[in-house]
Amino acid sequence: MSFQNPVFIPGPTNMPEALRRAADMPTLDHRSSLFAEILHPALDGVKQVLKSKTAEVFVFPSTGTGGWETALTNTLSAGDKVLAARNGMFSHRWIDMCTRHGLDMQIVEAAWGAGVPTDRYEEILRADKNHEIKVVLATHNETATGVKSDIAGVRRALDNAGHPALLYVDGVSSIGSMDFRMDEWGVDIAVTGSQKGFMLPAGLAIIGFSPKAMAQVETATLPRTFFDIRDMAAGYANNAYPYTPAVGLLNGLKLATEMLLNEGLENVFTRHNRIANGVRAAVNAWGLTLCAQSPDLYSDSVSAIMTPEGFNATDIVSHAADVYGVAFGVGLGEVAGKVFRIGHLGSLTDVMALSGIATAEMCMVDIGLDIQLGSGVAAAQEVYRQTTGYTLKAAA
Amino acid sequence: MSFQNPVFIPGPTNMPEALRRAADMPTLDHRSSLFAEILHPALDGVKQVLKSKTAEVFVFPSTGTGGWETALTNTLSAGDKVLAARNGMFSHRWIDMCTRHGLDMQIVEAAWGAGVPTDRYEEILRADKNHEIKVVLATHNETATGVKSDIAGVRRALDNAGHPALLYVDGVSSIGSMDFRMDEWGVDIAVTGSQKGFMLPAGLAIIGFSPKAMAQVETATLPRTFFDIRDMAAGYANNAYPYTPAVGLLNGLKLATEMLLNEGLENVFTRHNRIANGVRAAVNAWGLTLCAQSPDLYSDSVSAIMTPEGFNATDIVSHAADVYGVAFGVGLGEVAGKVFRIGHLGSLTDVMALSGIATAEMCMVDIGLDIQLGSGVAAAQEVYRQTTGYTLKAAA
Amino acid sequence: MSFQNPVFIPGPTNMPEALRRAADMPTLDHRSSLFAEILHPALDGVKQVLKSKTAEVFVFPSTGTGGWETALTNTLSAGDKVLAARNGMFSHRWIDMCTRHGLDMQIVEAAWGAGVPTDRYEEILRADKNHEIKVVLATHNETATGVKSDIAGVRRALDNAGHPALLYVDGVSSIGSMDFRMDEWGVDIAVTGSQKGFMLPAGLAIIGFSPKAMAQVETATLPRTFFDIRDMAAGYANNAYPYTPAVGLLNGLKLATEMLLNEGLENVFTRHNRIANGVRAAVNAWGLTLCAQSPDLYSDSVSAIMTPEGFNATDIVSHAADVYGVAFGVGLGEVAGKVFRIGHLGSLTDVMALSGIATAEMCMVDIGLDIQLGSGVAAAQEVYRQTTGYTLKAAA
Amino acid sequence: MSFQNPVFIPGPTNMPEALRRAADMPTLDHRSSLFAEILHPALDGVKQVLKSKTAEVFVFPSTGTGGWETALTNTLSAGDKVLAARNGMFSHRWIDMCTRHGLDMQIVEAAWGAGVPTDRYEEILRADKNHEIKVVLATHNETATGVKSDIAGVRRALDNAGHPALLYVDGVSSIGSMDFRMDEWGVDIAVTGSQKGFMLPAGLAIIGFSPKAMAQVETATLPRTFFDIRDMAAGYANNAYPYTPAVGLLNGLKLATEMLLNEGLENVFTRHNRIANGVRAAVNAWGLTLCAQSPDLYSDSVSAIMTPEGFNATDIVSHAADVYGVAFGVGLGEVAGKVFRIGHLGSLTDVMALSGIATAEMCMVDIGLDIQLGSGVAAAQEVYRQTTGYTLKAAA
After folding, report:
1. What sequence ranges are listed for the domain Aminotransferase class V (chains A, B, C, D) (predicted)?
2. In angstroms, rounded to a whole number, what is the distance separating the alpha carbons of residues B239 and B241?
3. Chain C residues touching residue D66 (CB < 8 angstroms)
4. I want to staple D346 with a disulfide (CB 3.0 to 4.6 A). Which of A69, B87, D175, D199 is the partner?
5. In a mutagenesis test of the B interface, which of A2, A62, A317, A359 is the best target, namely the one with the most B β-carbons within 10 Å?
6. What confidence tens digit (pLDDT) does each residue in C98-109 have?
7. Which pLDDT belongs to residue D1?
8. What per-residue confidence (pLDDT) applies to D3?
9. Does the pLDDT at position A392 exceed 60?
10. Which residues in chain A have Cβ-Cβ distances shorter than 8 Å to B9?
């Protein structure tokens, strides 16, 4: 495995050197006033990335999984009813966590490759006359299947049903890469991590709470200390933390949000879309299909590519690692062996993306797929050429 | 605050550049086989540092506080009885966590400056005829007071009482700096973090479970997912993690354990003792006393120094930060304003220690204490000169 | 210009992170004994890379140009006669330096794209009955044209002519990337720098002197101090330098030689040849030709690619930088505007090379060349697939 | 040797992390337009540090020694007459270089510990009726003896004598640390390097030429190519270099000048003076004396401290390195064994300086000098306390 090649896993991403350096800082006394100059801009930056005016943002030395647990334990009590859809490995895991914390789950099974079924959600919510459902879960981007769900649609389902349930969204592999509108979509808790759109090492759970979610904190009885946002909020109010913070990662998060906001969130999203379009053009040129069932579901941060019958998709990933020193993502759970994944989020250039496409192409040919070398690259090149913003001579 | 000066907080410590670089690694696919080459040596290295042959070691992207929660939630159920002593801020916080998780606490209040009262523990354990106490907590090194407690003595209390309770030890600011004998002392769970004796950035909870502690995991009903060691163990068995690991920090932990073991644990402890002796000689020369009540309690990783009546110890810390760019530790909780702390753990040289002592000296004089400039430095210099291992000419 | 993309200039190369870190070291007292532990292994390592048993190696804080000057000023006097061939920009510059130092130049003009004309050298040397020619210059790899000359052939020319002239070779862009045999080829002075095959930042001139070259040092009268190898040799004998050394770069050089020797020089050369073959296959697929006149002259460290009539090759380079953030090399001197150069030396992977080829392809299409997107990539992919050492399934 | 301790050699200095990072940059195409954004600000920054409006600044991948050679070879011809004083190792070496380049030296011998003898210079210049002396050399700060000479005084000597000779000043260990006024003092060539006041790794020769010096370039006949400022100037005019530049170091130089100018040059000089005053107070407390003969000669960048009869000063330096891992400077040339040197230039804090003083103290006691531990530290503490700018409580 060469550290000179880009990685194409759907996170952790390739890290810009500036962010690695921001995260790799010398020891700073986290009880000194300098810590505030890192902490508050990082929290404010996240809030802007979430497109929220009202959220309270909390950052824990943890991961997105810890973020899920923060959401649940701070707002719910054992036996509380939660509506969720299972359409991939990460929605599955959040459901599993709920179960282990004694929540009463109403689960909608969906195809791995489908989005969150907003119509079915609406039916269930309408049927819940007594408003027993406290929380609705939705995974914005199913990293396992490369499926982007319609969170605005989930909000409409709630509104159409006139249901007061809270809406908790896993935005781990979308926030910072794809459009996410916490306030506009009425998201009550948004969960993400440092190692995806923020382009940092893993190690931070990043969570935004709406005022409505904050209002649950005192009555929720699920036990928590490490993830208790009351201690965290008290710390922040004092420019501090309830325990030793991961200062370097917070410093990285501060810079990451500056970078995203300076580039402009819409530009960031457009950039991800461009890169993803190139990958999708390559998939099409190869005669393959995505796991995502329809174009409206295509994720701009990861593509899960179906391999033909008779081939184990995981072989492509192993082969890429062993022979070319390149990391792709394997299929997980129900789609294990059926898909391989190309992560294309974070700080990626056309040139880096092309090297990933070229490598996937070689691997597929090596293991016997009927793919023409250069075909996917050419399709992606065409996309990238046409969308650089550069006025081509041929067009002049 | 100059980043060129050493820090003298009791963790995070000054970080050797080799460890910063190990932690600051490029993105590695944590599902690749290379991850195993980081994970297992790190776990094995920790086990050796714990002086255990039988412990299972778990490392979470979290902090020592998360380590406490891991210990509790994986082995206990609401209402379980726990014996603990409160003799400082960190023992207090662990007790607070127990309470918030619904455990039935039997608390022994001790002076802030005293050690864990092993005699009192023994009395209570003897009195607990029905063995209702499931777990005994002990804080090996109270970072707030600079007090090292006698864990072997706690074990004797249990044994003398013939009590089967499990022994959980907070070794956050002792492990890797002061002698810790998990097997010999019959410690069932040992908790530490990355940012103290391991000289790394904060961000890892490091926990060792004895076989006896492991045996509790299936019956314990406190809810947990992020900190569930069953998921973690299943991950490790597969050279993986249940979620995205902090690969860089694990790589740093691997190197940190190599560094400690290559130096030799006893040499590491002797080195900490030497440095601490210099600091204590300075304190004595200043005519001041430590918060720790007697020499057997003196911590080799942090000294909490009592300031005379009429002075606010926190002023010394603020002044050092503002005027000299040096970070000391403030007093916490009951000893706030009464002590300031010099952390002297991790990778510290005589020369660095002397600069801390010299700075403390200037600060104390600046705020009006009757201290002679150079007096503490001279006392520490004498300690360091006599113990370098160098055969002095004068002695030849 | 993105720092995430590889560079494809013919030096400075892409730097492995390990070498960047070795070069970026904290201040070390260069008069301490630790300096010897860096200096001598670095010098010895270079000697092995030069394939010499007898050379004395000198390393100056300078560049290859300084290495040329070291060669001349330490062994020659004003008016001394020197034979040289001009077949590119770098051979031209060395000749210019000779002239400016008052040497009497006999210059053989050769086509830019041709190698050193060994037959013509032999004629001239045979004709020089009085052995007035003191030194013969040869540029092993003309970086400007991507032409590798036959140094063994130059040695044969000297031997066939029975001529005692010294042979000085510019190996700046060959040593460490392509086979170089100082002793076997009877090279008297070999010159290189840190930023090519050694994969380091620019900043070191690296020079090997044969015993025969060393014998000239006392009688040579060209003035020199900074580049005087006598001061340098005296310094080395004392584990020191005549002035402040670039300790970090020397530390990097030590590690670079270790990396090259651990990989095995022949493996390093084969790797460069593989990568270069892929680039050349792409050039062929594009229907273009190299500046190098024949396959025996093809350089494995840089390819200078001729663009068709009517196109300015420099536009490709500008376009790549402006639109795709990728650095290629422009044509220099006589071939300015006629060629663009792809550097493929140092630590490059197949995957990185493919991204360069894909980018060149897009640029050529963008500026209007009749090139098929993906065609060069496909040709290179085929080369890389067939030569990975991996047994392909299709072949099984 | 611990890399955690500060170094106290008179350069290379302790490097701020920001400068190490600026210097450690990824490969940038030095023929791209981005290079100009590094080069020109670096050159302009140096000009401001030199306090010159009219100088042309040149930066070579070399060292201060190369800077001396640049000065000589670009403006002089063999046989030209040069006036110089020898009062330490570095003035000696520049004289030696002149001799080796065939210049006709008129040397004024001065005590090692004395400054440049401006009166004697004036006499000689007055006596040189035919103005045969082309150049006067002066070493602003003799690093070997810790002596700062009076460059304004040398200018007055020239002016008083009505002599048109050029004035070349070695400011290697003064520029960026002590006041240097190129225009006001009529300095024609100023020479320095990257590893002193600029706090960077060694590897750059930095030279400023006055218009008068520039006017000599075409007529000077000393051979040069690498150090020819005409090639360098032509390169700069084209945003380029005549050969491969040390891009990272130039990037570091750009940032170093920004840091110095943002702090304010006068503040930088005051800071050096404060730190030096502390060291001198310690020397006085030890009952020792400086090599510099009188207070007006005391250098603010390095102190050369005389050891009493019967002690070898070099033992102190070896002992510090071996036992305490701290680097001081040995005595060189005539003062070898008689002095040891504490470098106190660059980015040094009070706290760092105190650790050096404390270490020197231990070493002197260890080898048997009659020094009281803590005495020098106390004297320096008093200086630092009184000059922090902080209003002491005692004084309030």
Report:
1. 29-318
2. 7
3. 61-62, 226
4. D199
5. A62
6. 999 999 999 999
7. 46
8. 83
9. no
10. 27, 29, 31
Question: Does pLDDT of A390 surpass 90?
Answer: no
Chain B touched by A234 (CB under 8 Å): no
Optimal mutation site among A17, A326, A377, A382, interface C, most CBs of chain C within 10 A: A377
- Which among D106, D88, D178, D181 is positioned nearest to D142, based on CA atoms? D88
Report the length, in residues, of chain D. Answer: 396
Domain boundaries, chain B: 17-262, 264-395
Please tell me the predicted confidence (pLDDT) of residue C394: 42
Cα separations (Å) of A132 from A129, A296, C234, C269?
8, 32, 87, 71
CATH fold for domain B17-262: Aspartate Aminotransferase; domain 2 (3.40.640)
- List A residues 128-157 in contact with B (Cβ-Cβ < 8 A): none
Q: Please name every residue paired with D337 in a beta bridge, in sequence order, or none if there are none.
A: none
* Strand A104-109, strand A81-86: pairing: parallel
Which sign does the torsion angle of CA D324, D327, D333, D339 carry? negative
| Residue A25 token pair | 């800082």
Over 80: is that where the pLDDT of B390 sits? no
Confidence bin at C3 (pLDDT 50/70/90): confident
Record: contact A351-C372, CB cut-off 8 A: no
CA distances (Å), origin B114, targets B57, B88, B91, B149:
30, 9, 12, 8
Probe site for chain D from A4, A15, A17, A255 (most D CB atoms < 10 A): A17
Of B367, B373, B385, the CB nearest to D378: B373
* Parallel/antiparallel/unpaired status of strands C189-193 and C204-209: antiparallel
Look at residue A391 in the predicted model and tell me its pLDDT: 47
Looking at residue B389, what is its pLDDT? 65
Mean pLDDT of B225-238: 98
Instruction: Tell me the two tokens of residue A282.
Output: 């390559």
Distance from CA of C188 to the nearest CA of D (A): 21
B333 burial (CB, 10 Å; 0-12 / 13-18 / 19+) is: middle
CATH class of A265-386: alpha beta
Q: Distance between alpha carbon C95 and the CA centroid of its chain, in Å?
A: 17
CA distance C127 to chain D (A): 30
Distance of alpha carbon C333 from the chain centroid: 18
The CATH fold of domain B264-395 = Aspartate Aminotransferase, domain 1 (3.90.1150)
CB contact under 8 A, B21 and C21: yes
Residue B388: per-residue pLDDT: 87
Rounded to a whole number, what is the distance in Å from the CA of B268 to chain C's nearest CA? 24
Q: Do domains D17-262 and D265-386 have the same CATH topology?
A: no
- Residue B391 has a CB neighbour count (10 Å cut-off) of 8
* Beta pairing class for C289-290 and C302-306: antiparallel
Do residues A150 and A142 touch, judged by C-beta distance below 8 A? no
Axis crossing angle, helix D350-366 with helix D375-386, rounded to the nearest 10: 170
Q: Looking at the complex, does the CB of residue D193 fall below 8 Å from at least one CB of chain B?
A: no
C173: left (phi over 0), alpha (psi -120 to 50) or beta: alpha
Whether chain B has a CB inside 8 Å of the CB on C3: the answer is: no
The CA-atom distances, in angstroms, between C22 and each of C13, C19, C41, D196 are 16, 5, 14, 21
Indicate the residue type of C183: D
pLDDT tens across C240-287, in order? 999 999 999 999 999 999 999 999 999 999 999 999 999 999 999 999
Asked if A145 contacts A15 with a C-beta cutoff of 8 angstroms, the reply is no
pLDDT-based confidence at D396, cuts 50/70/90?
very low
Rounded mean pLDDT of B50-61?
98
HEC string of A3-70 equals: CCCCCECCCCCCCCHHHHHHHCCCCCCCCCCHHHHHHHHHHHHHHHHCCCCCCEEEEEECCHHHHHHH
